[in-house]
Specification:
Blueprint: H1 3-10, E1 16-17, H2 23-33, E2 37-40, E3 49-52, H3 53-63, H4 89-99, E4 103-108, E5 111-117, H5 118-141
Helix pairs in contact: 4-5
Length: 143
């Protein structure tokens, strides 16, 4: 299965935030949209960084409540690991596991085309394994 297949099923919507927004605003947006990361972008198409819940927690642990007034640029992760729509889901799962990354923006010709989470990748893999299991059962039972 390719990343484009995964995006076709889940959608390609991506929440972005600018680097000059505050950590407090980013936190509100994460909660509002029920997501774990925001892509940092000045124009919604080019990736400057990524800000995850984990980045926010680290910033608050380091600076206390005052961290909420800092800008996103101070806490975002760079460089960002990205993938292409033509990349294989299983390969991406291995990269995400090895690098302990939970969110990977998808770039198509250098432009933001979606985002996949470790949950999306695992779900697609489990679904594929279930399809394979059913096919094997049908084959063995002669159906």
């Amino acid at each position: 299965m390719k990343i484009c297949d995964l995006l076709e099923a889940k959608g390609s919507s991506v929440e972005t935030i600018t680097a000059d927004a505050t950590i407090a605003e980013a936190s509100r947006r994460l909660v509002l949209h029920g997501i774990g990361a925001l892509v940092v972008s000045s124009d919604g198409t080019h990736v400057s960084g990524i800000l995850s819940e984990r980045d926010v927690v680290r910033e608050i642990a380091d600076g206390g409540a005052a961290a909420l007034t800092r800008d996103v640029a101070s806490a975002m992760t760079t460089p960002v690991t990205t993938c292409a729509p033509t990349d294989d889901v299983v390969s991406l799962m291995a990269v995400m596991t090895e690098r302990r990354i939970r969110h990977v923006p998808v770039l198509d010709a250098g432009r933001l085309a979606g985002i996949v989470s470790i949950g999306d990748v695992v779900k697609s893999r489990v679904d594929q394994l279930e399809r394979d299991r059913k096919e094997l059962l049908e084959y063995v039972s002669g159906r």
